[in-house]
């Protein structure tokens, strides 16, 4: 019996806001849209929830960028906010427009 990760699902109170953010940040097309659900590319989805995020995520995505400075500037331009200082080996915690944490790391 094999078990594998099929995808990552991010909770959202505003599906369109987060779909725009993540699709533009990661250059992913919206591949499916259903009531309360948007799929981006092959492995990322957003699901509508009624409650806003209130505490730190227990899991997050690490995104790898060829150009750390350009990637963090693009994230900020799209509405993300830094949630920590840039670390010595070039990685930084960010929050998407609804506060979900992710890291941008230098490849």
UniProtKB/TrEMBL annotation:
It holds the Pfam family Glyoxalase_6. Residues 8-105 form the Glyoxalase-like domain. Gene3D superfamilies: 2,3-Dihydroxybiphenyl 1,2-Dioxygenase, domain 1. InterPro entries: Glyas_Bleomycin-R_OHBP_Dase, Glyoxalase_6. This is Glyoxalase-like domain-containing protein. It comes from Planotetraspora kaengkrachanensis. The lineage of its organism: Bacteria, Bacillati, Actinomycetota, Actinomycetes, Streptosporangiales.
